Structures are given as structure tokens and as C-alpha cells.
């Protein structure tokens, strides 16, 4: 998270209570001090932070407000020509370009980058501003004397934003109106990576709600979306199933995603497709094949097992192969989430209901051990591909799927309640519900943008 919004809100509450306690105690101190006969020891009062009221300093006059400004964007005209047309002489133009060159490459200027030049009443150039983006702004001041370059401080703030949508064709389509569609879709896909295959599962009419951190920058032109942070909560109501996810930091500093019951959304793979395993041949990129009598990578693990021992799917997924497959004999392949594919070869037969396109859950029997294809005896060849590349299935580490620890269940439930309240209170799309800095006035200002 940028800074966990929830955490920050919690801290602010704590800070507010401290201030309140401080105020009450200082009030008490005033009363006690009236009793001159029995002064309270200093330490009681001194130990508690008392809010200090700082008088606001008078606003200094911004010298830039006294200048008259001309503005433009780089567009497709040379900046030199633009400034010249605005009445800047070539000496000043060269000076401006030289001063900005350490921070900006004028050869790679983007047409949308903007400039502003400030003239004194007598026509002398006094200031220049380069706006690369809402967060990257350079101010050149004192061009009529001692020039100074500074990157402008920008104010950013994070809000929890709600994004709701319905699938028409794809998740991308449903999010097309949102800024940074691909980033947002990627974040949602990652949260539900073990449950939903966003390339295949979504159906027309599926609905989703996302509560996500969104970072904005505020400047004199208004508010600008900057980037997304973490998804705080998400719900997906699909034709196939309904899923929910809640972000929670179980104490290790990293957030994990859990369902409302506090179970991790990460699904571990079973260590092996067989209940009892005995490895007879390990994964080996350069092994002598007993049947083919030549060197050939062994892209999997062989488990010796009696004929017709049930073979289970190591994780939920979709069957992408079920049938005769050359030397692999009767084979089953399952495509899982996160670009993992598992293979089960030399089967004696395939289990009922297992056909290409069928879904299986972790632990479902997909077939029975045999010796079809190139096999010397009854065994299961178990293979795995990650991102299209063969890997040793026994050496793969998958993130642990530990639930929310008991000691943190209350905190977790509270978090879920908060998130649900945010997701459910306002049903209209894209509403801003939580802010850490904004006031109602600023919110109105934004709506007027
Ligand atoms: Zn094998």
C-alpha cells in the first residue's frame, strides 16, 4: 500500500484521542494550579503532550502573482519559436533552455508538456514554468537577476475509490472508462488469481465492486488522478460463483487477501497427485530414457504406484487434454491459474466427467495409474509447466495459504465490516467515500471541475 489507508485512519483516531486526553489533562492542570497550597508535581502534566496552538503566519505576497503570464503547450512547434512569438528575446530563451536542460530533455519534449512565461511590467522576463505532468513541475524564478530553478512541491493524497462494473464482453471492456484500465484489471486479476481466470471465466452480466486506493495530486488546475494503490476489498458476482476479497496485514507488513471467513485466497498446490508417493525417477533435464534408449530431458517426476491408483488434480483448473498423447499414453493436462499447467501421463484410464473444457477442483480424481505410452511399468508421470516452461514440480514453492491468525480475527472482522460499509453505503459508481485530507469544500470544488 502507499501507506495503508486503514492504518492511517486508525492512527489518526489514536492521535485524536491523545489530543483529547492532553486537552482534558491540561484543563485539569489549570484547575489544580488554582489550589496553591497543594501544587501537583510537574511531571504529571509534563508527561502528556499538550497541543500547541501556532499562530498562522501572514501569507507572503507571491512575486509571481505580480507578473503577467503567457502560456502554451509544446505542441508541434519548436519551443524556441513559440517563446520568440510570445516576446521572449533569444538571450532569455537560451538561458531558460540551458537552466532547464539538467532536468528536462528538450529534444524529447511531448506535445502535451506545457510552459508558462512571466513578464514584468516593463516587459522583462522574470519567471518560467515547465509542466511535464501534474506532479512534475519546474519553476524558474529570478530570470531578471539571480535565477533559481526549483521543482514545485505538489500535494498528493490518497482516497479509497469505488469502481463498479458489469461484464459485457471482457473485464477490460468493463473497466474501459476508468483511468489506467490495464493496471486496474491486472490488480483485480491478481487478487482473484487462484479463483477466477479472467481470460476465460467472465460471463456477460457478471458484476464486480472494487474498493481501491487511488492517489491524486492537487494543484491550481484542480485534482488529477495519479495512480492506483492496493485493492482494499473486492467482490465478484459471477455466473460460475461469487467471490470476495479483503486486504489485511496479518502483522508481517505485507497485505494478503482473505475471504470474509478469514481464509487466504491463495490456494496451495497439493504436493503430489497421489495420496501415497514413491518417486522412482526425478525431474532431470538430461537423463537416459529407459525406453527410448537415448538422452532426453525428463520433464517431470515419476511415481511408482499400483495399477488403477487414483490420480488427483493438484489444484483446481480446467482440463485441456484428456486422451491418447503419443509416448505419454493416456494423458490428462490441467490448466491452472497463474499460468501453471500440470500433466498426468501413462494413465490406465481417465476418470468419469474428465474431458477437455471440464473444470476440476483440487483433489478431484482425474484418472488412474497405468503404463500406457512409453512406460516400463505402472507409474504416474507428473509434469508441471510454469509460464510455458517445464519445471520440477517437487521444487516449486507456492505462497502459503495461511488464514488470518486467531489473535487477529477481531481486527480482521472489524476491517471487513469497514470495507463492506464503504462498498455498500453508496451504490452509485465511482464515489469517493474516504479521504485523508480533503474537506467538503474541496470535494465540491472537485465536482465543479
Ligand atoms: Zn516420467
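Q: What amino acid sequence fits the structure above?
A:
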Amino acid at each position: 500500500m502507499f501507506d495503508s489507508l486503514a492504518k492511517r485512519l486508525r492512527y489518526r483516531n489514536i492521535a485524536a484521542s491523545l489530543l483529547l486526553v492532553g486537552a482534558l489533562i491540561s484543563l485539569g492542570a489549570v484547575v489544580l494550579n488554582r489550589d496553591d497550597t497543594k501544587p501537583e508535581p510537574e511531571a504529571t502534566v509534563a508527561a502528556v503532550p499538550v497541543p500547541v496552538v501556532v499562530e498562522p503566519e501572514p501569507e507572503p505576497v507571491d512575486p509571481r502573482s505580480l507578473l503577467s503570464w503567457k502560456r502554451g503547450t509544446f505542441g508541434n512547434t519548436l519551443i524556441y519559436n513559440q517563446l520568440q512569438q510570445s516576446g521572449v528575446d533569444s538571450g532569455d530563451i537560451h538561458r531558460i533552455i540551458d537552466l532547464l536542460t539538467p532536468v528536462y530533455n528538450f529534444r524529447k519534449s511531448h506535445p502535451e508538456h506545457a510552459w508558462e512565461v512571466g513578464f514584468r511590467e516593463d516587459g522583462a522576463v522574470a519567471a518560467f514554468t515547465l509542466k511535464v505532468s501534474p506532479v512534475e513541475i519546474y519553476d524558474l524564478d529570478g530570470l531578471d537577476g539571480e535565477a533559481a530553478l526549483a521543482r514545485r512541491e505538489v500535494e498528493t493524497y490518497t482516497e479509497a475509490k469505488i469502481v463498479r462494473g458489469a461484464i459485457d464482453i471482457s473485464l477490460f471492456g468493463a473497466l474501459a472508462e476508468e483511468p489506467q484500465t490495464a493496471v486496474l484489471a491486472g490488480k483485480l486479476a491478481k487478487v482473484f488469481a487462484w479463483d477466477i481466470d479472467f481470460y476465460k471465466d467472465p460471463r456477460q452480466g457478471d458484476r464486480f465492486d472494487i474498493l481501491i486506493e487511488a492517489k491524486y495530486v492537487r494543484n491550481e488546475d484542480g485534482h488529477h488522478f495519479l495512480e492506483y494503490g492496493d485493492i482494499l476489498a473486492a467482490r465478484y458476482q459471477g455466473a460460475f460463483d461469487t467471490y470476495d476479497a479483503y486486504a489485511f496485514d496479518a502483522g508481517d507488513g505485507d497485505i494478503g487477501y482473505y475471504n470474509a471467513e478469514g481464509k487466504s485466497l491463495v490456494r496451495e498446490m497439493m504436493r503430489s497427485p497421489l495420496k501415497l508417493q514413491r518417486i522412482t525417477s526425478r525431474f532431470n533435464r538430461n537423463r537416459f530414457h529407459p525406453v527410448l534408449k537415448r538422452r532426453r530431458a525428463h520433464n517431470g517426476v515419476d511415481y511408482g504406484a499400483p495399477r488403477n491408483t487414483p490420480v488427483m488434480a493438484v489444484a483446481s483448473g480446467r482440463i485441456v487434454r484428456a486422451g491418447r498423447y503419443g509416448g505419454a499414453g493416456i494423458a490428462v493436462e490441467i490448466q491452472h491459474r497463474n499460468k501453471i499447467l500440470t500433466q498426468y501421463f501413462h494413465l490406465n484410464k481417465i476418470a468419469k466427467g474428465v474431458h477437455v473444457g471440464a473444470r476440476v477442483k483440487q483433489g478431484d480424481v482425474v484418472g488412474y495409474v497405468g503404463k500406457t505410452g512409453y512406460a516400463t511399468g505402472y507409474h504416474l508421470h507428473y509434469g508441471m509447466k510454469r509460464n510455458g516452461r517445464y519445471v520440477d514440480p517437487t521444487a516449486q514453492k507456492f505462497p502459503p495459504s495461511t488464514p488470518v491468525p486467531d489473535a487477529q480475527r477481531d481486527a480482521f472482522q472489524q476491517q471487513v465490516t469497514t470495507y463492506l460499509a464503504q462498498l455498500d453505503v453508496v451504490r452509485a459508481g465511482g464515489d469517493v467515500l474516504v479521504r485523508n485530507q480533503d474537506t467538503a469544500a474541496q470535494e465540491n470544488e472537485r465536482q465543479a471541475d
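Q: And what stands out in the fold?
A: The pocket of zinc ion is lined by residues 281, 298, 300, 302, 381 (CB under 6 Å).
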